Amino acid sequence: MSRDLAAFFDANAARVRDELFDFLRIPSVSARSEHDADTRRAAAWLQGALETVGLRAETIDTPGHPIVLGERREAGAGKPTLLIYGHYDVQPAEPLELWDSPAFEPTIRDGNVYARGSVDDKGQLFLHVKALEAHLKVRGTLPVNVIVLAEGEEEVGSVNLEAFIEANRERLACDAVVISDSAMFAKGIPSILSSLRGMAYFQIDVQGPAGDLHSGSYGGAVVNPAMALARILATMHDETGKVAIPGFYDDVRPFPDAVRAQMRGLPFDEEHFRAETGAPALGGETGYTVLERLWTRPTCEVNGLLSGYTGEGAKTVLPAKAMAKVSCRLVPDQDPKRIEALMQAHVARVAPAGVTVTATHLHGGRPWRADLGGPLFDAAKVALAEVFGREPVVTGEGGSIPVVGDFERVLGAPVLLVGFGLPGENAHAPNEWMSLENYDKGMRAMARLYDVYGGSR
Amino acid sequence: MSRDLAAFFDANAARVRDELFDFLRIPSVSARSEHDADTRRAAAWLQGALETVGLRAETIDTPGHPIVLGERREAGAGKPTLLIYGHYDVQPAEPLELWDSPAFEPTIRDGNVYARGSVDDKGQLFLHVKALEAHLKVRGTLPVNVIVLAEGEEEVGSVNLEAFIEANRERLACDAVVISDSAMFAKGIPSILSSLRGMAYFQIDVQGPAGDLHSGSYGGAVVNPAMALARILATMHDETGKVAIPGFYDDVRPFPDAVRAQMRGLPFDEEHFRAETGAPALGGETGYTVLERLWTRPTCEVNGLLSGYTGEGAKTVLPAKAMAKVSCRLVPDQDPKRIEALMQAHVARVAPAGVTVTATHLHGGRPWRADLGGPLFDAAKVALAEVFGREPVVTGEGGSIPVVGDFERVLGAPVLLVGFGLPGENAHAPNEWMSLENYDKGMRAMARLYDVYGGSR
């Protein structure tokens, strides 16, 4: 990359790290109403950071958590406009007792910063802010017109973002979108994501008797809601690991052979992956490799279970109710609305008499697949190769960024997903971390990306 | 009943109620270690109450919660010795928010006292203490030799009682045992219990990955412990409601036709029972009436479920582990040790690869069936008929009192189960209550029982 920008990053490494740590200290947990004030504080903090760098910024209310918008459009009429998207909200940190250092006190160990939100997504969002700062501090100008759009509801399904984009489609008009909210294939291997799974997230509630009953006095004659829930969940897969909800695969479009071949060519060690999870063995749908299961196949998972007595010792209760959080990861062209209807029909069909069962759709997002080409894609290949010293690989991703499809559809702009996380970084789990080397290289690569993309026309 | 005892109960009704309320205020939750001091305090309180009445009493340590033993053996050599058993420990009170008045602050509504332990078993234990007091205050003597044995571990499986009885079989030698820890068939219908179900209580733990994982990044390739648990639990019944653990019914001895005929003759309204539970419909094993399912058939129930994220909103976690509390109610001649072996073999057989599953036996108790005869049984029929104004019925009971079989086996004495609870009394659930009318009539009936039994030889 150009020497002037590199010198800036060399000179400011400690400061840009400290600023990120201030951002990470704000517990902006969007799913928890007791953190609403913290979430708003994170938005205000980010607005201030954008203004300090030299962008015009504002915090815009939504029916939920606010959106922070930063803009600088002085690159010139012939220059492209790039929209940088990220999110400042984070997952809940529970179970807190499993964190080795406090979730909201950034702590460096082994070259990584441990904190909730470090890699998902504050660190990856903020590295763009600092890349913009490098340009503005060193040269006083940006090589592209820039819109920074950061939301506070990504971890709860981006429920207000689509409407915001729709309502502001002229203000948000751009030539391309870049998002850093994903992981590299492996340490040292820069990566561009070609696909994301979508999401349909449900809460299943089973209500039996009006109150908890004595399992001796009533057991055997009253349907047990926890057992009913288990039997309902057990109908959701067949013996080969396929999801057994009728119609579930109707809209699945197979991945092109070329993409599957490229995936099979990646240096992936399934045993290493297994060891990293700590699971005694891997599992999943028969007939697919691990990477294919993660990147190209839909799932149905239990994310949580709760019923009856869960404390120390024994309590002989027949619980009044049982609850499961169940989410399906979706692949093109599955539609979360249709999956919602299929799930609800399935649950209604298999629910036993004696209990009342509801499946409430909490949120959903469409799956996505990229066109692998265009000026921003080409610029990313150049920038990543320069900073990381090797060509990027094209990968898939099992997680969801529900708004990617919305950006393409509403703004008509291609989306580039270039992330700087690493495998095993514990996003959504205790001890989330981000590599500080990747934080640094990510800033440099994105600063270079703006240059190359700005020079492309 | 005799006029002198009746006058005592008339004159002391308020006091004996207040004393019970003091007993109920002690949160002697044996399952929770944070209540160990309270449990010990309840033992000391009971010892004091026995001494005040005129028994020699002591509190005897065990490896768990102590046993309170009261004795008075001055009725004369020709008189029988009666052992009165009860328990001073109570179930956990959670979920606290579902109580209409505090669990450990006895509150009278509609002629009932609401408190954890009111009917199970402090109220039913203490009415014997007050019946003994009536005899000693009015006449200065007892018509029978009496041993009062109260334990503090009934709600956690009476883990130390059997060894205590074995070690003290000479001191505890008696002609019969009476236990009041059960319910009458209906209000106004005095009842003698002829059978109890036993118990085998398990905790099933499923461990998958070492820590919680992101369900997007790992879902589909790592076996989900919560889904694995659901599939394991779903194997425990067949479509007819029978327990599907191989060998489970091998030792079930059918109830005699005469007993089943008597049960079918009881005035039982299944729709009323359903309405009382609040369940939309009843369920259970096909081919049996509700009372037969409750009294004569074994079960396998889920008492609790816990896995992953159970809070507000959505968290896309693939949980590291999942837990179920599972208990089987047993009928003669099922043996909890054999059921433990069958459960563990079954779980090992159905557990999928990719997770580690354990079924830990937390506690067990043998089922029991009475011989319906003998001097104490006959005395009970007389005393109950006199006080309640109608002949008692003989019932079964779906719950467990694991030590009943131990008393018969070790002491060689028949056990009489005569209880004063009522249907719907919420034992083991929020808003547990006991009828104050039954508390009063229970005292009178037991005082009369001692008289009749003492005159029987």
Automatic annotation (TrEMBL), chains A, B:
Biological processes, Gene Ontology terms: proteolysis
GO MF assignments: metal ion binding; peptidase activity
Keywords in alphabetical order: Hydrolase, Metal-binding, Protease
Top-level division of the source organism's lineage: Bacteria
Residue span, Peptidase M20 dimerisation domain: 196-353
Transmembrane segments: none
Name of the protein: Peptidase M20 dimerisation domain-containing protein
